[in-house]
Amino acid sequence: xxxxxxxxxxxxxxxxxxxxxxxxxxxxxxxxxxxxxxxxxxxxxxxxxxxxxxxxxxxxxxxxxxxxxxxxxxxxxxxxxxxxxxxxxxxxxxxxxxxxxxxxxxxxxxxxxxxxxxxxxxxxxxxxxxxxxxxxxxxxxxxxxxxxxxxxxxxxxxxxxxxxxxxxxxxxxxxxxxxxxxxxxxxxxxxxxxxxxxxxxxxxxxxxxxxxxxxxxxxxxxxxxxxxxxxxxxxxxxxxxxxxxxxxxxxxxxxxxxxxxxxxxxxxxxxxxxxxxxxxxxxxxxxxxxxxxxxxxxxxxxxxxxxxxxxxxxxxxxxxxxxxxxxxxxxxxxxxxxxxxxxxxxxxxxxxxxxxxxxxxxxxxxxxxxxxxxxxxxxxxxxxxxxxxxxxxxxxxxxxxxxxxxxxxxxxxxxxxxxxxxxxxxxxxxxxxxxxxxxxxxxxxxxxxxxxxxxxxxxxxxxxxxxxxxxxxxxxxxxxxxxxxxxxxxxxxxxxxxxxxxxxxxxxxxxxxxxxxxxxxxxxxxxxxxxxxxxxxxxxxxxxxxxxxxxxxxxxxxxxxxxxxxxxxxxxxxxxxxxxxxxxxxxxxxxxxxxxxxxxxxxxxxxxxxxxxxxxxxxxxxxxxxxxxxxxxxxxxxxxxxxxxxxxxxxxxxxxxxxxxxxxxxxxxxxxxxxxx
Amino acid sequence: xxxxxxxxxxxxxxxxxxxxxxxxxxxxxxxxxxxxxxxxxxxxxxxxxxxxxxxxxxxxxxxxxxxxxxxxxxxxxxxxxxxxxxxxxxxxxxxxxxxxxxxxxxxxxxxxxxxxxxxxxxxxxxxxxxxxxxxxxxxxxxxxxxxxxxxxxxxxxxxxxxxxxxxxxxxxxxxxxxxxxxxxx
Lengths: 677, 185
Description:
A: 677 residues, Immunoglobulin-like, Rossmann fold, 3 domains, six-stranded mixed beta sheet, 16 strands, 18% strand, B: 185 residues, mainly alpha, Rna Polymerase Sigma Factor, Chain: A, Arc Repressor Mutant, subunit A, 2 domains
């Protein structure tokens, strides 16, 4: 064969066939693989979810074993910061170039096989022993993911910058004499300050949004939005701050912070007009030249005798990741609270999904507490997250036991695993929407951190006429499921929309604080097909506008040089009206909306913040807190000033929520110090 | 308004590897089983070519299947799944052979002439048989390069992707292999 060329000779290799594997060997291999798979799942279940990197690092740096005295959080923070330095450019490239969109169901296929850059991972490269074969590969992958996470936190900074530029383009110059609503140039680049801080390194998913900008009344006199009764954002912010992190800006939804607290608005007296708006106007605490218009709504509180029968189906995530003290065990105690309130009229069923899937408790009378509680107690997290038909099953049970004129609701409790049996997020929304129209509503309770699909929670709850709450502690469970149970469970009006038309003769500019994710088009207001927020029994909803009165000198935009007084014909009749408030809602079983309207009189305005009610001052303090935490372009107040404002506005504060808020301000101050001293 | 319910219990229609992988990583047992089922033959065949012995190939294939349970999550979808699988398999082959060489040369020698040695098809020439044996005795990287390119018909770039080295390095290994083989054959 020496006369063959090397090449020809080697080509002989191609022609050989290969033998068939024996069936027995094949079966053996499969069985062994499945055993290993099950063992692996168990390991995954036990591994803490929160900080994979530290765990990895710890096991890699064997020398550090046994003397790991550093606080995890600190190390994690440092690690994240260091990683961010390395991975930011790469992370950014990824963020922009691949389809890692934050609004995706976690665990759904495309996100898991997202494709990063080439040379980073080397799967199964180091081969010292079989088991540890590719130990280093996952580390790289996870570091990478973290790079993306920090990138996500950093992204809004860019957007904020952009926004500033845009506004500058619209009209920069403020009258020399007066400070504008917020002097833009003087803002101490809040986003940069945030970056240096330990930003929440979680795998939690939030919808991104851009703060609503200042609008010119002449150009855009009408502002329309849907109410939002969710409070998840506040509980989440509280949890992250308490643990020593600054929440990512997109996790801070100001309207949810404000709405976390109860305000003492006068309540309507009967269910036929489920609520009435309360409006107050007072000077802005962070800018004496502008004013806050506060619109408050309180839902009708049914008398105890009117308590409606409830048909509740708990849909509980029992995937392995729920096996942490602040997840399933907390959930059990939380639901036990709710069960305690149930009576003979009520039925409760429990469906588990992921892990031990199926009906855990057939519909059971509320009086049979022992049975319900023991079923609840027997739930255990573990096993795979394979989707069963959890959600379908839950809705089927709810429909079978539907009570007319009662509360029919599926309560989904999860740490972010929405693998409930319908893989496609859109299909899931459609499904929930369809069921909502059939009269079964959905509430979502979020637990734990690290995997929380906040964006999905919000989307599902919104589509299901429900609310999304984040349960970070037993106290919060108590608030959501007992103190506010009426509001959480019993809807008194749905598709509640607010529209405010500002009077250009009185107001030159306005800005809606928060509600970015709830903005509606002007024409949506009168369109009953457009879905909007629901309001529960006794719930209060608050919306704040910052307005710039005409002639205050605080306008951000210059007057137009060529505009004539020619539009005078359209000048409104009432010169003492700031604007006109319209509110639309439907009764829970109604299809046509009703309209409530009233003018916002300039006479309502008080001259000094101190003259405003405690509720008003407190709401403003919460808004200022949220703006500062978000690194907003508006509302620059020192932490001290915010604290003083909140402290002085605590009111009776029966359950201590407001006092707790004051403590949160202190925490935030240490994490994000005032950059201007 | 009929949402697609995907029952993980029924994998009737052919599901893409990527889907199975994602599900398996998510903890879906059936998806993992299906994935292994689907690729067992590929793993076995590859192991067979590299080891040259059916019993060794079966051991390696089983080892790879077991390993997949833990390393599957490090598959990132950047390369084709089969390329990645090549790599895992070749690593397993190498692990086995290294372990064996530690156990002693004699056992190794014995193994080479064991009766279940994988022989190319009957009609294959004696030259081919001789060649296979020679190639399997090459240093690891030369052997991998030669087998990936000539037995598996890959380009030098593809082989580099699997071996974790540059295209030029692959070419160099092949060049070295040819030199070595000239001495052996």
